[in-house]
Amino acid sequence: MIISKTPVRISFFGGGTDYPEYFNEYGGCVLSTTIDKYVYITINKIGGLLDDKYRIAYKKIELCNSISEIEHPSVRETLRYLNIIDGLDINIFSDLPARTGLGSSSSFTVGLLNALYAYEGKIKSKLDYAQEAIYIEKEILNENVGVQDQLAAACGGLNYMKLSSSGYEVNPIILSKERKLVLDSNLLLYYTGISRFATEVLTEQIEKTKERKVMVELKDIYNMVQDGIKILSDDSIPLSDFGNLLDKTWQAKKKLSSAISNGPIDEMYEIAIKSGALGGKLLGAGGGGFFLFYVNKENQELFREKMENFIEIPFSFEEEGSRIIHFS
Questions:
Q1: In the CATH scheme, what architecture does the domain 2-174 have?
Q2: Whether 149 is catalytic
Q3: Which of 55, 125, 159, 194 has the fewest CB atoms below 10 angstroms from its CB?
Q4: 177-317: CATH class
Q5: What's the average model confidence in pLDDT over 175-192?
Q6: How far apart are CA 213 and CA 160, in angstroms?
Q7: What are the pLDDT digits (tens) for 220-260?
Q8: Where are the alpha helices (DSSP H) in 83-168?
Q9: Domain boundaries for CATH 3.30.70.890 within the chain
Q10: Over the stretch 55-71, which tens digit does the pLDDT of each residue have?
Q11: CA-based angle 13:17:19, to the nearest 5?
């Protein structure tokens, strides 16, 4: 049995500049971190006692005799990509729901590649796993996804990513233990109760990017990455500025597409700000999923009381990225 464990991510600044439609021409960058919520994948070789060659278990169970029969697109195309012909039992578990803006679909593809390479007795670099996941999702599955999620899931940690047509760089952000702990403890994650397919939300944004209708907003979002790094790296700057910057990026993000926000989302954000949040943003493509808020420690008790109708998900930063946690 092989088990891979791959984190999801929260993206602070730069989302939208990680699409080839933008970074191939202008360059992109992202500031994000992975958190201690994971996608787990187990792989077992199927023996000759079962009638079916492939068993895929997630929210449903698929029993198939050929790869082409597999309905799960990422499983099907990743098996094809690696040319794996052995019968396999693949089980998928996740700490959090899918389609909620935390990059779990890319975490899944990265984790599946990691597990399947381990099954073949091969080890690749974290960047290799990310780049191959990007290729499968964008070139084979033709999904409207950026490249930050795969890089974050594979590499793990708090990172500054530089993106261009010539390749990707993932650079760790080095903070003192105390400052990183304060940042971690002042960030709160709340579920909107809405799940959605990112591809559907992103269609308008990508078209506007191609037509250069949101260049001002994307440039502002791009510049906020450097602003965020400066805040984190300079101990003389109060971390509360990070919260204010999250509000600024949320206001810019909403202009990228009419599908990013809606009445209930705007109402939730307004309640959060009135309850003590300095800022926040909806994670991922938008339209639902999780809100990340920055709330100073002394205001969190009141904040949680005011936000009691919404679900908080406690979390901490993680630094390891996708890894194999069991091999036998």
A1: 2-Layer Sandwich (3.30)
A2: yes
A3: 125
A4: alpha beta
A5: 96
A6: 26
A7: 999 999 999 999 999 999 999 999 999 999 999 999 888 78
A8: 104-119, 126-134, 148-155
A9: 177-317
A10: 999 999 999 999 999 99
A11: 130
